[in-house]
Structures are given as C-alpha cells and as structure tokens.
C-alpha cells in the first residue's frame, strides 16, 4: 500500500514514517511536511518527501505527486495548550484535516481500482467529545476540538455515496516517546499511556486491515 503521512517531523508522525519504512505491507510513503526530514529518511527509496507550506489548500500539482495513495495517516495537531490561541488550534486541527480529507476523497479515490478503499486514519485523543455544548472540567478545548474533527471526518465519509472513503479515529492516551525513562513508563501504566512506536504500529495495522469500528479507544490500541 502507498500511504500519505502528515506531521512527519512530530512525535507521532516521525514514528509513523519509521514504522511504515519497516513494514512490508507499505510499499511507499508520501511524507507531507513543512520542513525537511532527517537525511536517513529523505534518502530512503521507500519515502518521497513533499514539502508543503500551506495545509489549508491542496493544489492539483501536489495531488498529482501522491497519485496511487490508498490511505492517509494523519498526525497533525496536538493539545490546545500547544497553540497560541483556540482559533489557531481549531484551524490546524479541524480545517487542515477536513480540507485534506475532502481533497483526497474527491481526487484520489476515483483513481483507485474498482472495489478498493481509501482509509483515512486520524490520530485523535482520549476522551474526545462530540457534544460541543457539554460541560468539561479538564482539557475542554482539546477534547471538544478533537471531537469536532472526528464528527466532521465521519460526515466526509458518509457523503461518499460509494463508501470507498473510510475513516478511523484513534484515541490514544498519553503518548510516551521512544526514549522515555523507566519512571515515565511505570507512571504511564497508571493511566494507560502508550509508547509512540506501539501507537504507530497500531495505526498502521488499522490502515492496512481496517477495523470494525470507526472510533478506536486507547485500550484497543494497546492490543493491536
């Protein structure tokens, strides 16, 4: 499978690229990135790095470069507190994601062989909330915005009459970097933290095999 990966310089995105390179089920990675990737990754014959400055638009020239892609691993986003304000966070988390989903559904899906599907796997977060009016007592902005992305992605999938654009929303708890120390790993077990490479492998498995549900909770990710 040829796959598009976003957020390739981030914690999750970089792990996704590494694990895709190591997975025999992935034939090629189109890494969309604002910045250049590590030389070892960029020089891999299995990876094409596509520098893309504006994730609010997908010109035909860019879409031509990712022709043949059968799925996307979306890892742009994070927590609201990592952004200067809620409007910026919503733009990056909601607008960028939905713009890409629509572009891929409209442009890439029709190019796939008859009967095949395009799987869009979104890295969301634990306790994402679809009800935008619900009172939340912690991480409210993050949970509401991630819930909004999930809901709108599902709407994009539902709008595809042929049901060839398929969406999965993964909800990891805290994500541990590959070099996390013993204390972080032990403490992380108390709230179901998941290692970044384990998460990447789980997302790739969903990409390759699909899953019975659209929303994939943290407990399930730990078992995939």
Automatic annotation (TrEMBL):
Top-rank taxon, per record: Eukaryota
Gene3D superfamilies in the record: NAD(P)-binding Rossmann-like Domain
InterPro entries recorded: NAD(P)-bd_dom_sf
Name assigned to this protein: NAD(P)-binding domain-containing protein
Upper classification of the organism: Eukaryota, Fungi, Dikarya, Ascomycota, Pezizomycotina
